[in-house]
């Protein structure tokens, strides 16, 4: 069942219409705003001069409670997460503030000042890392070793048979997991912070009428985790879908560290490499899974970029055990495109 058909089921439509009626938006015009790689759907509602966004996240495929919890954390810190107008968490409906259409992705396509946008996004991360409270941090799920091992297994479960033509041998798989168990502790020397998990240009907006870090709107943060500081910086600077202009990544890396001078640089560099490799391995597997399982081959075009990012992370000294595994088992010519 496709995501669109799921949201068009008569029972789901009736629940949506009742939710909007109870929220005072029953007569609003509605049009599809966005879908994504999940089961969530977003519609823009127009009622007179007012607009809002409906998130339709049908259970059991989705759970809106993490979104509302993280939205509260971000809003409490003065950051621009969408305001919540109404919600039915049990049924998976949220009525949210409409932050507009000026995502970083669209702005960059129109030639907006790239360094300005990225500096603002880094400043948001500095503010968030500085000010997240201990109780809020403890409320988030941890990206612990068990979860990390599960996520990186997507590469061996989905990418390996698609690229290599057969399932991964069990002994090679165990070597892979052992290599990860060796490097993950090196990534945990940096202090823990919040990671919004999908912090990249598709989920950031420019709100020029707002001041300071509030000028950066935040979307799609329901998967936030407790993770070593710098996870979102890595997600931003090593985007699976686009390359930054030359020289911008090291500048922004230094900007983040300058804003957090108490961070130990060596420990931070290890965390950046380890969880960069963790994210890139997961994304390689996820993009192939979206093709094979969900019939969405469009993400495959990004595989060469993500492989380059993974190889960059593997070059760090902390990654030696995992780099050795890739060098022994994944030929260079396999580290790139796959044709659907």
TrEMBL record:
<keyword id="KW-0808">Transferase</keyword>
<dbReference type="GO" id="GO:0016740">
    <property type="term" value="F:transferase activity"/>
</dbReference>
<dbReference type="Pfam" id="PF01636">
    <property type="entry name" value="APH"/>
</dbReference>
<dbReference type="InterPro" id="IPR011009">
    <property type="entry name" value="Kinase-like_dom_sf"/>
</dbReference>
<protein>
    <submittedName>
        <fullName>Aminoglycoside phosphotransferase</fullName>
    </submittedName>
</protein>
<feature type="domain" description="Aminoglycoside phosphotransferase">
    <location>
        <begin position="31"/>
        <end position="262"/>
    </location>
</feature>
<dbReference type="InterPro" id="IPR002575">
    <property type="entry name" value="Aminoglycoside_PTrfase"/>
</dbReference>
């Amino acid at each position: 069942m496709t995501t669109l058909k799921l949201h068009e089921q008569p029972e789901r439509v009736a629940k949506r219409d009742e939710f909007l009626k109870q929220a005072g938006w029953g007569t609003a015009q509605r049009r599809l705003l966005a879908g994504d790689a999940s089961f969530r759907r977003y519609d823009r509602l127009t009622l007179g001069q007012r607009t809002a966004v409906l998130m339709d996240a049908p259970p059991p495929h989705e759970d809106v409670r993490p979104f509302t919890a993280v939205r509260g954390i971000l809003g409490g810190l003065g950051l621009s997460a969408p305001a919540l107008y109404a919600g039915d968490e049990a049924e998976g409906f949220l009525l949210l503030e409409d932050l507009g259409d000026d995502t970083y992705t669209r702005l960059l396509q129109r030639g907006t000042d790239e360094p300005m946008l990225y500096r603002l996004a880094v400043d948001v991360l500095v503010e968030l890392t500085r000010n997240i409270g201990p109780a809020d941090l403890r409320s988030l799920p941890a990206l612990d070793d068990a979860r990390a091992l599960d996520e990186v297994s997507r590469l061996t479960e989905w990418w390996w048979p698609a690229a290599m033509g057969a399932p991964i041998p069990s002994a090679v798989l165990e070597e892979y997991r052992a290599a990860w168990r060796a490097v993950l502790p090196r990534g945990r020397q940096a202090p823990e912070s919040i990671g919004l998990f999908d912090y990249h240009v598709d989920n950031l907006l420019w709100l020029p009428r707002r001041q300071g870090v509030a000028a950066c709107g935040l979307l799609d943060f329901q998967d936030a985790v407790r993770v070593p500081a710098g996870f979102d910086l890595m997600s931003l600077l090593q985007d699976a879908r686009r390359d930054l202009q030359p020289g911008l990544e090291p500048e922004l890396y230094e900007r983040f560290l300058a804003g957090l001078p108490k961070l130990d640089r060596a420990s931070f560099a290890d965390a950046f490499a380890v969880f960069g490799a963790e994210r890139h391995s997961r994304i390689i597997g996820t993009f192939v899974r979206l093709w094979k399982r969900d019939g969405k081959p469009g993400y495959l075009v990004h595989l060469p970029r993500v492989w380059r990012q993974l190889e960059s992370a593997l070059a760090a000294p902390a990654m030696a055990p995992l780099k050795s595994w890739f060098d022994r088992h994944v030929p260079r010519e396999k580290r790139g495109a796959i044709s659907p």
